[in-house]
């Protein structure tokens, strides 16, 4: 672990730069940093850069606890903007990204570096994201639901050609060619990944590159997520001049997916126990109904920016 700059001798330059955007969650950030600072490589330095995105809480305790971590400040709202600043300050040929509320599993960073390092000019990889259960024997409804349906990294990478930025790694040279992450108006991870795909870069899934993400505490957190995603999707729908009929058909398909995905709740290997599966099914029904109603609402309302759902107050 250590800090370095591009002017340092090669032996002192970091092998990988880990970039972490942060907003108003210093306790979670310290938990994340505990997991990242405990990562081990067979050789080389690790550079860790936290970019605060306008928090209204102090990070002095974080600075004191982790003096080896560089902390920067990006006032423009949005995690993409924060990551861009971190990338600009990074000194390593490999870039790894994790979110402040995530916990890296042992071996996460080694798996990322080993995947990217052989071909850093062309490699983009994403890893597994699992829910961090409080009590694996008795999951909350949201934990059970998100264990099956949230963070479907392998599916996103294979079918939509992007990895969520909460568990992403690439060569710095790739990022330089593809360009910066977009602002908060769109889903910056999907936008960046699909731009990279159009340029010929193929994102690969690395199962050993695992992080854990806490489930949302209550349904309001899940609702805010879907408000943001539906706002992004509707923005793209309008930008591509697609018909409103198509939008409404998609909304009915979301509602109908309860029956297909309800069966998955009882077959997924990411859950165990009948009670956990039933709690997950209950939330599945509630969530799909909410998405249907929200899609109908945005179709009747003026277009809204995703920035409306970027919480800088809590």
Secondary structure: elements and pairs:
Layout: E1 14-22, H1 26-37, E2 45-52, H2 60-65, E3 70-73, H3 79-89, E4 94-98, E5 103-104, H4 108-116, E6 124-131, H5 141-149, H6 153-160, E7 167-171, H7 172-178, H8 188-198, E8 203-213, H9 219-239, H10 244-265, H11 274-300
Parallel strand pairs: 1-2, 1-4, 2-3, 6-8
Antiparallel strand pairs: 4-7, 5-8, 6-7
Helix pairs in contact: 5-11, 9-11, 10-11
GO cellular component, one term: plasma membrane
Keywords: Cell membrane, Glycosyltransferase, Membrane, Transferase
Subcellular location: Cell membrane
Tally of alpha and pi helices: 11
Q: What about the largest sheet?
A: 8 strands, mixed
SS-based structural class? alpha/beta
Overall helicity: 40-55%
CATH topological fold name of the largest domain: Spore Coat Polysaccharide Biosynthesis Protein SpsA, Chain A
- The CATH class of the largest domain turns out to be Alpha Beta
Radius of gyration: 20 Å
Describe the global form.
globular
According to CATH, the homologous superfamily of the largest domain is Spore Coat Polysaccharide Biosynthesis Protein SpsA, Chain A
